[in-house]
């Protein structure tokens, strides 16, 4: 498939720390690519570097031929890139509706798209007029993802959406992500829940020590316990 996002030799420094040490990554258009790796491997830094929140100190970073390195985060968002951070980024004092409105670039929400989102996350409709701080952890995660979905995006970056959530909520997120995939939205997702990774991933890249050390198809990694153990130190089968 055609590539949408490409990183070549990307380095990122945060203060005195050299976090990304030559990341090479290709995200095909219309696919969900999983970014896996142990804690501290550089996965979150990769997403934040793509989003312009942290600046790449070297390398090439392009979205469909557009150089992202000189762009500020709002400019990258205007190219059609959505971001769901690990901390969810929900405004607790604002209502669910107000949180969604802030994510709509023109200040208006398409009603048909909003109803589609409600079909995926019914709790958001139920608590539409209430402060987002009243939501449970799982509901806040749904709101965070829904904000990225309120408009069609070329690319959505999602950082550990299942972290700390109950299995039933994770299952609901998996179904919602499957629906989003059916719209041919390109997704790059960091995830530690390997059941979710296996259920959703088309492609996979594994990071270690600030570099991508493996890239391929998710199904191939899921079928190879020896490769899982070598790259991740565990077997996906132990996390079903």
UniProtKB/TrEMBL annotation:
* Listed PROSITE patterns: ABC_TRANSPORTER_1 (PS00211), ABC_TRANSPORTER_2 (PS50893)
Matches recorded under CDD domains: ABC_TM1139_LivF_branched
Q: Which Pfam families match?
A: ABC_tran
Q: Which InterPro entries match?
A: AAA+_ATPase (IPR003593), ABC_transporter-like_ATP-bd (IPR003439), ABC_transporter-like_CS (IPR017871), BCAA_Transport_ATP-bd_LivF (IPR052156), P-loop_NTPase (IPR027417)
Occurrences of domain ABC transporter (ranges):
5-234
What Gene Ontology terms for biological process does this UniProt record contain? Answer: L-amino acid transport
| Keywords linked to the UniProt accession | Amino-acid transport, ATP-binding, Nucleotide-binding, Transport
Which GO molecular-function terms appear in the entry? Answer: ATP binding; ATP hydrolysis activity; branched-chain amino acid transmembrane transporter activity
Q: Which family does it belong to?
A: Belongs to the ABC transporter superfamily.
Protein's name according to its UniProt entry: ABC transporter ATP-binding protein
Species for this entry: Thalassobaculum fulvum
